[in-house]
Protein 1
Amino acid sequence: MVYTQFIDGVLTTFSTRESWTNYNPANNEPMGEVCLATDEDIEAAVHSSEKAFQIWRTKTGAERGRVLSKAAHILRSRLEKIAFSETQDVGKPISESLAVDVSSAADALEYFGGMAAGIHGEFFDLKNAFGYTRPEPLGVCVGIGAWNYPIQIAAWKAAPALACGNSMIFKPSELTPATALQLADVFMEAGAPPGLFNVLQGDGSVGSKLVEHPQIAKISLTGSVSTGKKIFAGAANQLKRVTLELGGKSPLIIFEDADLDNAVSAAMLANFYTQGEVCSNGTRVFVQRQIFDSFLLKLKDRTEKIRLGDPTDPDTQMGALISKAHMEKVIRFIDSGKSSGATLLTGGFRPEKDFKGRDISSGNFLTPAIFTDCDDAMEICKEEIFGPVLSILSFESEKEVIERANDTPFGLSAGVFTNDIKRGHRVIHQLQAGTCWINNYNITPIELPFGGYKQSGQGRENSLAAIQHYTQLKSVYVELGNVESPY
Ligand code: NDP
């Protein structure tokens, strides 16, 4: 398999001049070669996206919406094929790629496709004059993706951008080059003009060239806080707009009156879904002292039953980490937890066999880890690990847990489990996080804004809120009388 650029409706030819190998996380065998976008490719993509923008901006919202809705339909019809590619690229279980990754990408196209015809300004009656506003597109936007949800990230960025009349150049993570190309193909088949959605392969250097390119109007990144800061600084030079969806170290707070089984389910979802490689994960699980022991017992028991193994097996519940280097980074965090005095209750080691007895020793597999005897100051409780590592902390009072939960530079997400409806809202309202749940975790419907407080981001994806991040507002004053002149 070779992965090249998708520019102006076609794949570029492959050149091994500057390329790298893409590996399967489940066995570290090579899957294909990825061709680095050259400076000429970047210029060609910008030129082509600019051309497409000039065509696309003149379409009515309904016309744009039809293309997006058709794209959603085509994506769903290719669900299995695309889900399989995603699983091979990322290492996540096929059950997840089918149920979440490709489906939520299609949801975004459907949602913003339906909304495109309704994007409108306002009217102001001003006696002998009137005014109105026009939400106008920005131009050529750049999307830069992380490797954990490649097609979902691409669609979450492209759908609102295109609905608003922009074009987009998307750069996937260098570790997951496949499904953005498949999405580009879907857009073409749905009737998008060539260049409306171009794909450039490359590492951070391609991303930063795009950020600095004078013809790019906006950048939307999903990635780490440190990359977010670089992009923010790069965009500041030309005062470009940015949306930043960054990392976190989110709290999940479980009060003594919570439904214990649901709370355990949520803690597992909040830490072990996609091998723990989820930005919004609730990796600091605060459990009220009265239920601490019973919670821990259930959590350990159910965690040890997670079916870890071959990601392409429909029965698998947990797959492989994205790369050897990332797995080693997660193992370093586990070592740090142990050496700082936390107790590794279960997991945290590389298994030889999967749940069906198959040899998985060559893949990037790590058993789900639970740390207890944790302290807020430990590295494992402060840093984003981005792997299957849960730290459990006990607390006494509501006031105390709110203070401890907020004691972080991150603010992506937070969750609260309680059967006291007043407490649920009271606590959530005091947590410094952009995306919150009461009595569930990591549910991200397209209807609700998604994004972070503090260093976890800027702007919002999904929902109506995304529209304002992909449009600029023009105010028009229309005189119906004479010009009142003092001269
Ligand atoms: P990185 O920040 O390393 O990379 C994100 C993307 O930015 C990649 O495509 C990367 O390219 C690119 N990039 C790197 N440096 C630059 C630069 N200087 N200029 C422009 N682009 C650059 O994140 P990861 O891919 O490792 O993803 C994990 C991180 O993403 C975690 O911190 C996680 O929390 C966060 N994340 C946030 C989400 C959210 O919605 N809030 C969702 C998912 C993940 P390349 O990979 O090729 O180097």
Protein 2
Amino acid sequence: MQKLQDLAAHVATEFEKVYGRPPRWIAAAPGRVNIIGEHTDYNDGFVLPMAIEFYSMMAADRPVDGREVITLRSTLETEVATIDLSRPVVPTTPKWGNYPRGVVAGFQAWGIQPGGLDVLLHSTVPLGSGLSSSAALEVCTATLLEAVTGTTLDPVEKALLCQKAEHDYAGVPCGIMDQFISALGREDHLLLLDCRTRKTEIVPMQDPSVALLIINTNVKHELSGGEYAERRTQCEEAARNLGVASLRDVTAGLLEAGKSKMSETAYRRARHVIGEIARTVQAAQGVRHSDWPTVGRLMAASHAALRDDYEVSCPELDAVVEIAEAIGEKGGVYGCRMTGGGFGGCCVALVKASSLDAITKKIATDYKARTGIAATIFSSRPAAGATILKR
Ligand code: GLA
């Protein structure tokens, strides 16, 4: 895993190769893994993510010709994205440019003019893997623009600006978790976020006896596929039929009493959400007390509900969870679940640090045997949120 400073040096070199001079600013923002609290953010619930040591990073300078144009080049994309600041900033092609475009538009809406820029983007967050590469890109852009314009946004406002960019420019009606953790992550801490009040609490995760393993199924997920928006609508339907503003206001008892007022599907979606909100609060408590067996059990229950009630898992994610569960606590696995939006992407497993290598090998072998796909497996400590590396 590349250290942030090494990565910054790499990006600076790449910038110089492309633009022929060193960058004036460098900013970075991390991807995330969610420990628990899945599909709860847009239901005003709790989430418990952490930032990971994978980053979206941008190096930039003013254009030599002084034009009011932002030119975005990426080490991962061949197409160049440009933003002509003399015109209204609207979504266009290439698609990847729409995340920064939305953020630029957000700054403009706040009356902050970024001015022309030459930008080089590099990202180590695996794309389409449910590790929030898009939120990292948005928050990275916002952090770069803070450096460039000499403004410091309130981190909550910054996260909301980035979420709006994703809604309006990428067409994904995401919740607030990903942008919040990318902006507000703390080294060695999880972030317990109350998505209703937007109050955050950092929860220390420093016990050296445990580690978090991220298992990428290498099955790509695509959130704009409509399934995500459909889940949101079903939750809204359930809340409406129960006469409440959001599922946060519903207890298990209330849901049972109101079961006949909604479709069977909406009922199951709500059952997941209500259970998951409770599990997230309990898991945060478990982390505070280093009660890893309890946290692991809650993660397992979360996966089962996402698979059966919320129906956002897929055979490959289920395969990883089954393999991890077969290893069990005796073999060093406390719990394992899918993480992020679902339909592919990653699982997260809470494991004994002493068994990390053995577990990694076992999951890799068994997953390959079952699916024919090679998984990518790595562990990450909780990383810090967005940062300006050169100003
Ligand atoms: C995606 C969204 C988040 C959240 C998760 C599911 O990552 O961007 O806002 O809803 O799915 O928990």
